[in-house]
Amino acid sequence: MLTNREQMIFNWIKEQPSITQKEIAERAGISRSSVSVHISNLTAKGAILGRRYILSERPYFIVIGAANMDIAGRPDTSLVAGDSNPGKVTMSFGGVGRNVAHNLALLDSDVRLLTAFGEDYRARELKEGCLDCGIDIDASITVPGASTSTYLFIMDEHGEMQEAINDMQIYEYVTPERIEERLDVIQHAAACVIDTNLPQQTIEFIAKNVTCPIFCDPVSSIKAQKLKKVLGKIHTLKPNRLEAEMLSGIKITDDTSLEAAAHELLATGLKRVFISLGEKGLLCADHEKTVHLPLLPAKLVNMTGAGDAMMAGVTWAYTQGMTLEQT
């Protein structure tokens, strides 16, 4: 027997099969995570045939990558190495994949996240956080007994990251076999975004088997090495200067070497490359043109996640048919 709330939601679905969970939450005046619970109950009671039957048929994104609990420390004044620095410590939801998915959701996109959660309180908080901001996590994996990924970092007084430790072994469970089980939902996406927190064999499997456009954030110069064999299978790459140097084999010292590195990357088969240069802006290049964009003036609060927001914007812009300059 359905509860009054379940009956109300069931009636809305019956009247409008394409209604989204976000729309249901707004109508009912409840959280996105609460809607997800009601949908699960309706499925368990046989009232509907699964959550995917109520999703909008509009294009969606699939993001495969990290979802972490971030612990950040920022000193009140200049950071003193080897000492206890007075400041602020905060905890927040992070991870390249989750951050990209969150920003895509903020662009009013349907987005699905494929990541690995542990079986602890941090996983519960992360899952609820994803649902609350409109991220579908049905494709994600929960690993019994495992610890959820955690990222600990120290910033300077300006918000620039200085040191970090990542505890991300859980992503070893995102195996090619797990991806193959979910290949249908990946193939039907408008675009697939991956990050290099995934195991190398998983990245190579995705590159070989996924037919929708693949967008990739190399994450770090060390993890970017996982991409060397598959660059030609990726549509768009968003490296920073160090990652671009490692993948292109060209030391970037000026505008000439910067453009040479971009062209070397495009020669692998990439369609577009966006090289972030920090305070010096961004180099955008495809097989027709190269554009150097300056950094827009803004008050710096925290640089963490800025590249993830850009990755989301670049991916979204492509699906909107935007040119390189418009992107």
General description of the model:
The chain is of the alpha/beta class and 327 residues long. It has two domains: 11-54, Arc Repressor Mutant, subunit A; 60-319, 3-Layer(aba) Sandwich (UDP-N-acetylmuramoyl-L-alanine:D-glutamate ligase), CATH 3.40.1190. Helix content is 34%, strand content 21%. The chain contains eleven helices and 15 strands. It has helices at 4-15, 21-28, 32-44, 96-106, 121-132, 176-181, 183-187, 200-209, 241-248, 255-266, 306-319; strands at residues 60-64, 68-75, 87-94, 110-114, 116-117, 135-136, 141-142, 150-155, 161-167, 191-195, 214-217, 236-237, 272-276, 282-286, 290-293. The chain has a nine-stranded mixed β-sheet, sandwiched between helices. Helix 4 crosses helix 11. The longest helix has 14 residues, at 306-319. It is globular and about 70 Å long. The N and C termini lie far apart (50 Å). The model is unreliable at 51-56 (pLDDT under 50).
> What is the number of domains?
2
What's the assembly state of these chains?
single chain
Low-confidence stretches: 51-56
Share of β-strand residues: 15-25%
Outline, from the CA principal axes?
A: globular
Order of helices and strands: HHHEEEHEEHEEEEHHEHEEHHEEEH
Q: Roughly how many Å is the radius of gyration?
A: 21 Å
Strand order of the largest sheet: 6-4-1-10-11-12-13-14-15
CATH architecture level-2 label of the largest domain = 3-Layer(aba) Sandwich
**How many beta-strand segments?**
15
Mean pLDDT: 90
Main beta sheet: 9 strands, mixed
Structural class: alpha/beta
Here the CATH topology of the largest domain equals: UDP-N-acetylmuramoyl-L-alanine:D-glutamate ligase
What share of residues is helical? 25-40%
Question: Considering the protein shown, what is the CATH homologous superfamily of the largest domain?
Answer: Ribokinase
